[in-house]
């Protein structure tokens, strides 16, 4: 693709104290993205940024739209061939745009470096996918989705951001987009490079602690549903003693396990 056909959307909600780091990571790219869009979704803590970084396009909302509506509106503003969203609390490696520009596919995924004070949570939840790396954690995402995957704008706009499950505490809008793009026959390419630094920090949990508890409790109910004859949690699950004491899956399903959601990407597997 042409080297300037990528838009990066930086999304912030109460990340004003971290956003400059993310912006700096994009301004220091070896190949600059075509556009950098920054949206503050009603957090009211990013007013200082335009004076520091006047060449970025800003959207300041006077009320919080929520992840789905916010992302959908920002996606509608993109006119380049490709787009990727990044949280304002995270940042990209300095050669990320250059490497992504060299790949031609409908979706391009890449690995993630998990950092921050609360990074060990990922290692506990995903011990088969994450491992220690230079003081942080390396999270392998080959042919698997994540919220900052790069994708063709036209395909994303055709599908749109929507909640994956209406009764879910977290919208899983990126999961829904991934699923629907694959249903449309999207091609997927993966870079075995840790291009995104994913910061696990206190503000994540202050804002979304109710979602973490909901997710863990939901998966616990799935474990009981799938193996009711055991009367106790299946060996493939373990307790999260640091939060609710609930049970959650930590590894791939047994070979004879059947589920509506099991795929070659080894996604979370339980009935909804």
How would you characterize the overall build of this protein?
The protein has eight helices and twelve strands. By secondary structure, it is an alpha/beta fold. The model is unreliable at 208-272 (pLDDT under 50).
List descriptors.
single chain; 272 residues; alpha/beta; Spore Coat Polysaccharide Biosynthesis Protein SpsA, Chain A; two-stranded antiparallel ribbon; globular; disordered C terminus
Strands, helices and their partners?
Blueprint: E1 6-12, H1 19-27, E2 35-40, H2 49-52, E3 57-60, H3 67-76, E4 82-87, E5 91-92, H4 96-101, E6 107-115, H5 120-125, E7 130-133, E8 136-139, E9 150-152, H6 153-159, H7 173-183, E10 188-199, H8 202-226, E11 237-239, E12 247-249
Parallel strand pairs: 1-2, 1-4, 2-3, 6-10
Antiparallel strand pairs: 4-9, 5-10, 6-8, 6-9, 7-8, 11-12
Do you know the CATH topology of the largest domain? Answer: Spore Coat Polysaccharide Biosynthesis Protein SpsA, Chain A
Taking all residues together, what is the mean pLDDT?
80
Any idea what the radius of gyration is?
19 Å
Task: Give the helix level as a range of percent.
Answer: 25-40%
| N-to-C order of helices and strands | EHEHEHEEHEHEEEHHEHEE
- CATH homologous superfamily of the largest domain? Spore Coat Polysaccharide Biosynthesis Protein SpsA, Chain A
Q: What's the level 1 CATH class of the largest domain? A: Alpha Beta
């Amino acid at each position: 693709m042409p080297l300037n056909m990528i838009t990066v959307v930086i999304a912030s909600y109460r990340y004003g104290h971290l956003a400059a780091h993310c912006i700096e990571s994009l301004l220091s790219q070896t190949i600059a993205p075509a556009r950098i869009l920054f949206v503050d979704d009603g957090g009211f803590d990013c007013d200082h940024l335009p004076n520091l970084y006047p060449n970025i396009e800003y959207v300041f909302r006077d009320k919080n739209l929520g992840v789905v509506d916010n992302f959908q509106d920002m996606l509608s503003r993109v006119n380049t061939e490709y787009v990727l969203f990044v949280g304002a609390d995270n940042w990209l490696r300095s050669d990320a745009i250059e490497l992504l520009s060299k790949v031609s596919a409908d979706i391009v995924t890449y690995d993630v470096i998990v950092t921050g004070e609360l990074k060990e949570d990922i290692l506990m939840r995903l011990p088969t996918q994450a491992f220690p790396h230079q003081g942080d954690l390396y999270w392998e995402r080959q042919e698997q989705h994540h919220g900052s995957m790069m994708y063709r704008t036209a395909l994303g706009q055709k599908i749109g951001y929507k909640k994956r499950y209406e009764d879910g505490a977290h919208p899983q809008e990126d999961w829904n987009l991934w699923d629907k793009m694959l249903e449309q026959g999207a091609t997927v390419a993966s870079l075995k490079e840790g291009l995104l630094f994913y910061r696990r920090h206190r503000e994540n949990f202050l804002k979304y602690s109710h979602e973490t508890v909901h997710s863990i409790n939901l998966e616990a109910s799935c474990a009981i549903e799938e193996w009711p004859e055991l009367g106790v949690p299946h060996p493939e699950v373990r307790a999260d003693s640091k939060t609710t004491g609930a049970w959650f899956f930590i590894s791939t399903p047994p070979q004879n396990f059947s589920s509506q959601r099991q795929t070659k990407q080894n996604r979370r597997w339980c009935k909804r």
